Amino acid sequence: MLDKNGIAKRIAKEVKDGYYVNLGIGIPTLVANFVRDDIEVEFQSENGVLGMGPFPFEGDEDADIINAGKQTITTLPGASFFDSATSFSMIRGQHVDLTILGAMEVSENGDIANWKIPGKMVKGMGGAMDLVASAENIIVAMMHTNRAGASKLLKSCSLPLTGVACVKKIVTNMAVLEVAQKGFKLLERAPGVSVEDIQNATEGHLIIDGDIPEMKL
Amino acid sequence: MINKEVANVVEALRGVSNSMTFMFGGFGLSGIPENAIAELVKLNVKDLTCISNNAGVDDFGLGLLLQQKQIKKMISSYVGENDEFERQMLSGELDVELIPQGTLAERARAAQAGFPAFYTPAGYGTEVAEGKETRDFDGKMYVLEHAFDADFGFIKAWKGDAAGNLIFKGTARNFNPNMCGAAKITVAEVEELVPVGELDPNQIHIPGIFVQRIFQGDHFEKRIEQRTVRQRNN
After folding, report:
1. Quick one: pLDDT at residue B81?
2. What are the angstrom distances between the C-alpha of B136 and each of A131, B107, B129, B145, B147?
3. Measured on CA atoms in the order B129, B130, B135, B140, is the torsion positive or negative?
4. Which of A132, A198, A202, B27 has its CA 20 to 30 A from that of B45?
5. Which residues of A are the active-site residues?
6. Residue of chain B nearest A120, judged by CA positions
7. Is the Cβ of A118 closer than 8 Å to some Cβ of chain B?
8. A63 → closest Cβ in B77, B106, B224
9. Does the distance separating the beta carbons of B31 and A134 come in below 8 Å?
10. Do A160 and B126 make contact, defined as CB atoms within 8 angstroms?
């Protein structure tokens, strides 16, 4: 079973040389820490920066330089700032190569829910609806089950949707899965996790085709 | 040169009244028009419709207007940082329209650019698209979204001049340039109002034609919402 850093580490292997990548808040943000340093990747934050660097050293924080999580950040050589309409032109216009975001629920046809729990939590969608509606390549980073132990990989989402039929790949603490024609196709198991464990934690249809390898991290 | 300079925030906000619709630049607490917000608190105008990506925090930004119950309706994309907001929304005191962030930016830009509406894929198949016209373009579905219609737009820029030209800094730029010229009256507050001619015309982000009033802000707190740092390795 992976922890959050383990999920981020596995997802980092999906990041290829020359990619522009948008990272969501939470586990996705950690992915930046594990990207190979022999490839060139630029991170976009939808509030208006391309070429995000690490957090600033203490004392160097600048209220005018933040990421979409409102955290103080730095920029790398070659970075640029731009307005929100330009930022979403990059996203809607499919100039961003990879989007990695968190989810509360994903359904077996690739629907995603991550912005609202009616009557309980209403934070808003931020840029998530724009991202999932336009991105060609979306990876969801999340725990396989919620805090109550219920599966987050469902036949159909119960929460208000963020986007329909858009998720391509899911990396959880238990597995790597692909959204296929007829369900979640199991690609890899997390270390120490059996196919049976994954089956038991997946409410939606799980496609198990041949031997399922363990993840290489 | 057409002079847009006004002496202070009081003059800049002349004409604001109850029940108006306002747009505010800013993302989180970065690039928010702090001086205009402080003056709106003083004026205590009520029943406002506010268009802003976020709603501030409890004791800063638009949170200050929420505290005084000046806002009737908020149009935002993300409001997770404000407990008073959540309380007013869940109790039904506050009307809230949550819309995708890119749609918010584009509805402002459409108003600026003279487009009445546009199609976007964001929100298709979700409750955001309910009651809206949808259309198929080349096999993909899109939702029709309309340009904003606001009385005042409150903008914060880094530098500006009396001609109304503006330059923004870092990610404090965000929605500010998109909202210039998107309301009937655009009011810009700047950290530094420089003499006309000092700004390089090649470097202007927003030409003065989109701004009706500009003033030197009195005080900018520029509060940091999430202070994240790394350790020095020596």
Report:
1. 82
2. 19, 20, 14, 15, 21
3. positive
4. B27
5. 46
6. B90
7. no
8. B224
9. no
10. yes
Q: What is the pTM of this model?
A: 0.96
Q: Which of B37, B45, B22 is nearest to B149 (CA)?
A: B22
Identify all chain B residues contacting A122, using CB atoms and an 8 Å cutoff. Answer: 79, 86, 89-90, 96, 98
C-alpha separations of A95 from A18, A89, A133, B131 in Å: 12, 8, 13, 30
Helix (H, G, I), strand (E, B) or coil at A100: strand
* DSSP per residue, A41-97: -EEEETTTEEEE--PPBTT---TT-B-TTSBB--EEEEEEE--HHHHHHHHHTT---
Does B86 or A148 have the greater pLDDT score? A148
Domains in chain A: ranges and CATH: 4-207 (3.40.1080.10)
The answer to whether B31 faces chain A, any CB pair under 8 Å, is yes
Whole-number pLDDT of residue B83: 87
B99: amino acid identity, one letter = I
Q: Which is nearest to A23 in space by CA: A113, A102, A76, A92?
A: A102
Distance CA B60, CA B37 (A): 9
8-state DSSP, B107 = H
Q: Minimal Cα–Cα distance from B91 to chain A, Å?
A: 10
Q: Is A71 on the interface with B (CB under 8 A)?
A: yes
**Across the interface, do A119 and B90 touch by the CB < 8 Å criterion?**
yes
- How confident is the model at residue A122, as a pLDDT? 82
Q: What is the β-pairing status of strands A116-117 and A121-122?
A: antiparallel
Q: What is the pLDDT of residue B9?
A: 98
The answer to whether B191 faces chain A, any CB pair under 8 Å, is no
pLDDT bucket at A159, cuts 50 / 70 / 90: very high
Q: Among B122, B169, B170, whose Cβ lies nearest the Cβ of A133? A: B122
Q: What is the pLDDT of residues B157-194, one digit of tens each?
A: 999 999 999 999 999 999 999 999 999 999 999 999 99
The minimal CB distance from A130 to the residues B101, B169, B177 is found for B101
Structure tokens at B60: 């800063």
- Measured between CB atoms, does A147 come within 8 Å of chain B? no
| ipTM score above 0.90 | yes
| Closest residue by Cα to residue A171 from A150, A199, A193, A143 | A143
Write the DSSP string, B172-225.
Answer: G-TTHHHHTTSEEEEEEEEEEEEPTT-S-GGG-SB-GGG-SEEEE-S------S
The answer to whether A134 contacts chain B (CB < 8 Å) is yes
Contacts of A59 in chain B (CB under 8 A): 229
What integer best gives the mean pLDDT of chain B? 96
